Amino acid sequence: MAPQGKMNARQRAARQKRKMVLFAVEILIILIMIAVLYLVMNKSGEGPKVTYLDPDNLAIPSQVIESKEEGGKMHGYMNIALFGVDATSDKQLYKGSRSDSIMIANINMDTGDIKLVSIYRDTYLNIGDEFRKCNAAYSFGGAEQAVKMLNMNLDMDITNFVTVGYRGLSKVIDGLGGIYIDVDSEELKHINNYQISICEVLKCDYTPVTEAGYQLLNGLQATAYCRIRHTKGDDFQRAARQREVIQAIEEQAKKTDLVTLTNVFNDCIGDIYTSLDSNDILELLGNIANYRIVAEDGFPQPDMRGNANMGAKGACVIPTDLESNVVWLHQFLFGDDDYTVSDSVMEYNETIKADTTPFLKD
């Protein structure tokens, strides 16, 4: 007879229609560190699924373009959008799946400092032709529409992205020999149920996590850790766990030999869809030893967000003041203490307030 915990997890998985939460962000550091090794050592290999995004189609605000050209605060940075989609096939990597994990990796090309910002998937934003949860942009228009959504709402200049399917994370972590994570007592109550729901899809076995504390997690355990949302903080805390896993992967990867890193990339390469070609990656790798994650946070900020059930549009995270959130974002990423948002952001801010005020709780 199946344990009660297993039955509960199966019932939960059925209610969720087996929907997997996928995390592109957890393999970004690995991608950057070892893609060139793959290209050099396996020139005849298939490589990642690469596409090109035309900057003219990505809604980069003219104010941002002009500022960078004039040497403004955003000059000298590379921003990469990271998407984890609920895809169950290669086709859904391209379009038709929601980006349940959305991050911006901000890289200072002079210092190698990396900052990570989670854009909460339920955030109510302009996704191109309507306002709704921002994770719908990827489903409607793939990576191009999702990148466009980030640029137009946040005054960004993103032209590159990385998307992966759910198998990638587990493969990467197992290839590295696991990662070290501090699992607290509340997380311990849920991590094994999430392992069970993942195995329902992957048709695999799992090893239960039996105690709290700082410990080595395998790929499946770490993936389950990223999916936990039934603790204090819900989706906000889950996004923080995702960023924690990135940092743990970075630490483990820097301890790993080149042959092992190459093998890891070979194993997960079929799960990667990206705009980064060999020249992009070579540029990033020029000073890879100095790349380091120095800060991480989430958008919108706690004191500038609310929650509202928007009827047919569902339960949304509301940026109660989009302008202030965008000003904070530019200060956090670029050190710009005097940023003035674009006219578009001002317009979107007014629409968001008008749409959501009747639904917001006091």
TrEMBL record:
Pfam families: LytR_cpsA_psr (PF03816). Residues 98-254 form the Cell envelope-related transcriptional attenuator domain. The keyword Cell wall biogenesis/degradation does not apply. Keywords: Membrane, Transmembrane, Transmembrane helix. The keyword Transmembrane applies. The chain crosses the membrane at residues 21-41. It comes from the Bacteria. InterPro entries: LytR/CpsA/Psr_CW_biosynth, LytR_CpsA_psr. PANTHER family: POLYISOPRENYL-TEICHOIC ACID--PEPTIDOGLYCAN TEICHOIC ACID TRANSFERASE TAGU (PTHR33392:SF6). Belongs to the LytR/CpsA/Psr (LCP) family. This is Regulatory protein MsrR. It comes from Acetatifactor muris.
